[in-house]
Amino acid sequence: MIEIDSVSKVFGSGATAFTALNDVSVTIRENEFFTLLGPSGCGKTTLLRTIAGFNAPSSGSVRLDGEDLVALPPYKRPVNTVFQNYALFPHMTVAENIGFGLDMLNRPKSEIKATVAEMLELVQMTPMADRRTSEISGGQQQRVALARALAPRPKVLLLDEPLSALDYKLRKGMQVELKRLQNETGITFVFVTHDQEEALSMSDRIAVMSNSRILQVGSPHDIYDHPAERFVAEFIGETNFLTGKIAGQEGETLRVALDVGGEIIARQPPGDPAGQAVTVAVRPEHAHFCAPDSAEATVTGEVSNVVYLGTDTHFHLVLSDGTPFALRLQNTPERAADAKLGDRVGIRVAPGVAQVLRD
Amino acid sequence: MAEPKGFNVKKQHGFTTIAVLCFLLLYTPIILLVLYSFNAGTSIAIWEGFSWRWYISTWGNEQVKEAALLSLWLAIVSSAVATSVAVLAALATTRRAPYKGQTVVFAIINQPLMVPEIVTAVALLIFFALIKNYTGYTGGAYLFIAHSAFCVPFAYMPIRARLQGMDLTLEQAASDLYGTPLRVFRKVTLPLLWPGILAGAMLAFVISLDDVVITEFVKAAGQDTLPTYMLGQLRRVVTPEVNAISTVLLAISVTMVIVYFILNQRKN
Amino acid sequence: MANATHRPSFTERHSQWVLLAPALTLLCVAAFGPLFIVAIYSFLTPGDYGGVVWKFSTEAWFNVFAERDIFDETIGFADAHLAIFWRSLRLALITTVVAFLFGFPTAYFIATRPAHQRNLWMLLIMVPFWTNLLIRTFAIMELIRNEGVVNTLLMGLGIINEPIQMLYTDFAIMVGMLYVYLPLMVLPIYASLERFDFSLVEAGYDLYANRLKVLRKVILPVTRPGIVAGSILVLIPALGAYVTPRVLGGGKRMMLGNLIELQFGQGRNWPLGAALAMLLLLIVMATMVFYVRAAGREGGGHG
């Protein structure tokens, strides 16, 4: 539906030139909740603003249902934005804010009134209709901003870190709310965030961005379990990195001889690994304890720290060559094996669970 | 309040005394001036009882009435002109990235603030004399042009401050919601700018109303505003009539400034 | 992220010059442009009844500093002018220093009030400033006249028998300028002090400084930009003062502004008046450049 094709954006020129988007291509599908995830400065907001029309791309094209958007000013694009700071008009009431877009589209008064009422209902703000925007709470402002952007029934709703100004509890609530709204309206949502948890819990698909590029696009499950690059693995969740050399291929998986000793069977990355020497990513919860130096042990190490975290216990280990390794176990009542500080332990990683990285 | 004696970090010996002295110094002369405008006698030092006498005699003075009318007209017209051009200029100077020539633009707009008034006054005297020579026109328009010009920076300052404080995403949001540029300006920018415009207009009004130096140099013979009339009276015996005029002008200025203050407060 | 980028607005589509045109035209015609004509006039020959004759001459600039004896054509310093320059400079500087001595403690006092009170105190400073300068000068005049409140009071108390002549002295002019320009000193110093981080003062005390040393070594240096700005704001109008010396100096105690006016009135020497006006403008501009330098040097330290 939205096709972003080789879009680049350079701000400034000469020595001060800054590339905010570097040859970015991605396709966003109809009715999906699509998230642009990355650290601040990675270009995700620039990409969003390019779709909204506040940035003209230096090169490349942005098409919506086949129609080229680049030449259109923001007010001619069937795309609405929920701004990071909400940008509610302080001189208008809640209802006037929500009706603004329809008013600009010269819709009849009766239609505006009906839609505003419907939107107020949708975001549960009906009793606040005649309040000034300064008289409502942050969470309520957030809902008004959403309603205002949804009222003209845009083809795409763009959300620029809309939850970042809310406190933790409110944010959790709004995440559920946003997902519900997306389901009910069937509008495509493009959501920008730097919060990996938010991205994983809400999205149909995630694009991980870093350094003005998109590194990987996939479902939350894909992104988490099978990161393509070291950055993706590091940015989302916690990961152990083990270096080694490719020792053979078995279907979808690679056999890697680890530098620390031992062998691991790990998934092949999308595209070929750069060479014989590779990095393998292992999530802490994908590893288990076993007897040291036993046949099932992938590697062996020593417990250097134990951190109790309530739902989990976190074990910090040091492998025989000094590489740190983290292992996480859930604190279930029936959990048997436990390791103490200073214990020598074996670490088992099931075949095909770990991921060989592309770089 | 009896508080335990701790170490007051912010205290500096004697500063409060000087500050109090400073406020006394600022207000005593003005308060005395106002007070003696109600004096029944002609003295400006000996109180002889309360009376409206000087206000009544001032009201009957045709010259004062004429001067007051001119002052008022000048203030209204020049603040209106200055504010209008200042709004446009403020929009042009706040809504884009820095560019070459910006300093020159600022220097021109703020010229009346930076150059001593006497210099501008002399410059206008010479310039308008030249025009008079060529065109033969000697009417009152010169005064209106001069006042409009030196009021511009005063109107410009609060409008620019307001624009700079304005959240640009509001305009983007309006544009995102299908507002064409003109409608965004009318529906979002202008309503939000309104307090700044009002504040600027009031400052310009007060500045025009109070001006002495430029007016004195530019005015045609026989033309007088209230301040130049009062300056002219200096040569004669000063009666509390001058105090009465001053008190009225003071009341107008103080009211305006307080309204301006309140408008600025609401912004925050 | 690059947010300071595309700003779609009414103004962007219509060239900024169209929007600037009315203001710039008005100011160029009736404020900025005529300054150039003054510069030209300072190089012309005076007409017999005011005005100028369009003949190039440097006589006016010569006359600013020097004079020819009418009888023997010898050249000497224009003592009368130099005395007036000296008075202008001296009174302006004294006014600035005294304004600082009053203004800094006052600004400090306001900046150390509770936050919600500060704006009200500043309003009290600004109200006199926005009221008519002439009226405020009148108020001072009435106060210090021989028949004024001060003398009447002193005589009434038996401290003096004769009124002290205060009006029409340099002292009167200085008091008048102090009175009208004091708010200009308080305003920028207050702006500096309000942002001032008082934990710096705590650190000073912690490191064994006493109150005076904290003031001298911590507060004054950090608020220097405000002090410089305030001094400039007082110094410039004081140098060009016209109304105050005219009312309080009584025509005898002239400052540069009055000397300029004289050339366009009774003096009928427009080129000399123009040259004097240019001189004043040059002094003011030099002061401004000094300020920009001084402020620029400080600029780095304070975000």
TrEMBL record, chain A:
PROSITE patterns (UniProt xref): ABC_TRANSPORTER_1, ABC_TRANSPORTER_2
SMART domains given in the database record: AAA
Record EC number: 7.6.2.11
Family: Belongs to the ABC transporter superfamily. Spermidine/putrescine importer (TC 3.A.1.11.1) family.
Assembly behavior: The complex is composed of two ATP-binding proteins (PotA), two transmembrane proteins (PotB and PotC) and a solute-binding protein (PotD).
PANTHER family for the chain: SPERMIDINE/PUTRESCINE IMPORT ATP-BINDING PROTEIN POTA, SPERMIDINE_PUTRESCINE IMPORT ATP-BINDING PROTEIN POTA
Name of the protein described by the UniProt record: Spermidine/putrescine import ATP-binding protein PotA
From TrEMBL, chain C:
Primary location class: membrane
Keyword terms: Cell membrane, Membrane, Transmembrane, Transmembrane helix, Transport
Family annotation (Gene3D superfamilies): MetI-like (1.10.3720.10)
GO cellular component, one term: plasma membrane
Location(s) in or outside the cell: Cell membrane
Cross-referenced CDD domains: TM_PBP2
Transmembrane regions: 17-44, 91-111, 123-144, 171-191, 226-244, 272-292
Keyword match Transmembrane: yes
InterPro entries: MetI-like, MetI-like_sf
ABC transmembrane type-1 domain sequence ranges: 85-291
Pfam assignment, any one: BPD_transp_1
Gene Ontology biological process terms in this record: transmembrane transport
Membrane-topology descriptor: Multi-pass membrane protein
PROSITE patterns linked: ABC_TM1
Protein family according to the UniProt entry: Belongs to the binding-protein-dependent transport system permease family. CysTW subfamily.
Protein name: Spermidine/putrescine ABC transporter, permease protein
Organism: Roseovarius nubinhibens (strain ATCC BAA-591 / DSM 15170 / ISM)
